[in-house]
Amino acid sequence: MKLILAIVQDKDANILSNEFIDANIRATKLSTTGGFLRSGNTTFIVGVEDDRVEEVLELIKQTSHARQQFMTPPANLDPMGDSSMPYPIEVQVGGATVFVMPVDQFHHF
Amino acid sequence: MKLILAIVQDKDANILSNEFIDANIRATKLSTTGGFLRSGNTTFIVGVEDDRVEEVLELIKQTSHARQQFMTPPANLDPMGDSSMPYPIEVQVGGATVFVMPVDQFHHF
Amino acid sequence: MKLILAIVQDKDANILSNEFIDANIRATKLSTTGGFLRSGNTTFIVGVEDDRVEEVLELIKQTSHARQQFMTPPANLDPMGDSSMPYPIEVQVGGATVFVMPVDQFHHF
Ligand code: NI
Ligand code: NI
Ligand code: NI
User: Fold this and answer.
1) Does C36 touch chain A (CB under 8 A)?
2) Per the UniProt record, which residue ranges are transmembrane (chains A, B, C) (predicted)?
3) Residue B39: what pLDDT?
4) What is the domain range of residue C93?
5) Total number of domains in chain A
6) Chains near B, with 3+ CB pairs < 8 A?
7) Whether C102 and A102 lie within 8 Å, measured CB to CB
8) DSSP H or E stretch at residue A17
9) What is the chain B residue with the closest CA to A18?
10) What is the pLDDT of residues A42-88, one digit of tens each?
11) Which of A62, B53, C4, C55 makes a 20 to 30 Å CA pair with B64?
12) What's the pLDDT score for residue C35?
């Protein structure tokens, strides 16, 4: 048995939750504070048998890895009143921090 | 020293908190998100000496184990306008997922 | 790699967060429930290399240790209508509970 603690971006949390449900992996979601420190993240606690650790890591990696994305800024952000259309900029989204931890005992009451 | 992570139903959390206080066991409660994934759960972090692990597990088991409960549905849920009284149905409540984890160092500053 | 779980008072959480940022230590903050059980606390999850554990512990100790503080109660708490000024009383603030835990695998996707 291992406990996997996964911290992902809020925007990836719903998809990851659904992947866990599809794979019949029980996960608990902790709310993280909005705020100055890594705000907008969701923490998952997942308990799995040792032989499913790789599967869980793969799900997290696939749904939540850091990647570049094009985003079009809203037009009214232009401070000069320039009438040209805004163009898409590339931003990094996603990214997951994952700890796999040993477990001495697991119980389900 | 062990860290016990216990995920219980919200409806059992208050009683369990009081049991911990009565037993002089220090517990920290984390809020879980309302939502689609195991919503309505509360996560406790409990730090205890090895020789009190069994006692903590027993408290969690006694207050939070899965059990059947009779619940009477509200009368106005009957879509047919039937005037008969609603009868109690049996539902499962409670249930706890518990991890006992090794601790390298414990500090209280 | 170690996972450090630190539970500190809310009033010390902002300063500790800033210390972590200054030291380039990545921390995730979990909200704790307001309520009857150790309310007003914040839980940090910090992942660090073994050789930085002492540094993290020292930051937590310095910013969040229990200490005595003088606090002046508000004047309108006097039930006798006594017109004398309230005098400062000494209260304990702060205090941190810290677990250093082993980690089998650490990933950053
Ligand atoms: Ni991709
Ligand atoms: Ni029972
Ligand atoms: Ni001091």
Assistant:
1) no
2) none
3) 52
4) 2-76+85-102
5) 1
6) A, C
7) yes
8) helix A10-22
9) B37
10) 889 999 999 999 999 999 999 999 999 888 877 665 566 666 677 88
11) C4
12) 36
Q: Which candidate from A17, A105, A107 shows the least CB-CB separation from B37?
A: A17
pLDDT for the residue numbered B76: 60
CB contact under 8 A, A32 and C31: yes
Size of interface A-B (CB pairs under 8 A): 75
- Calpha distance A29→A45 (Å, rounded): 6
How far apart, in whole angstroms, are the C-alpha atoms of residue A86 and residue C62?
Answer: 48
User: How much is the ipTM here?
Assistant: 0.78
More confident residue, C5 or C73: C5
Centre of ligand 1 from the C-alpha of residue C53, in Å: 33
How far from the centroid of its chain's Cα atoms is residue C17's Cα? 9
Nearest chain C alpha carbon to A63: C109
Residue C5 touches partner A, C-beta closer than 8 Å: no
CA atoms within a 13 Å half-sphere pointing along the CA-CB vector of C79: 0
Q: Within a domain: residue A57?
A: yes
Q: Say how many residues make up chain C.
A: 109
Chain B residues whose beta carbon lies within 8 Å of the beta carbon of residue C61: 107, 109
Residue B44 lies in a domain: yes
What pLDDT is recorded for position B77?
56
Q: Is C18 within the bounds of a domain?
A: yes
CATH number of the CATH domain containing A93: 3.30.70.120
> Residue B42 carries which side chain, given as an amino acid letter?
T
Rounded to 5°, the CA angle B72-B73-B74 comes to: 115
Structure tokens at C75: 């004047």
**What is the overall mean pLDDT for chain A?**
85
Token reading at B98: 């518990």
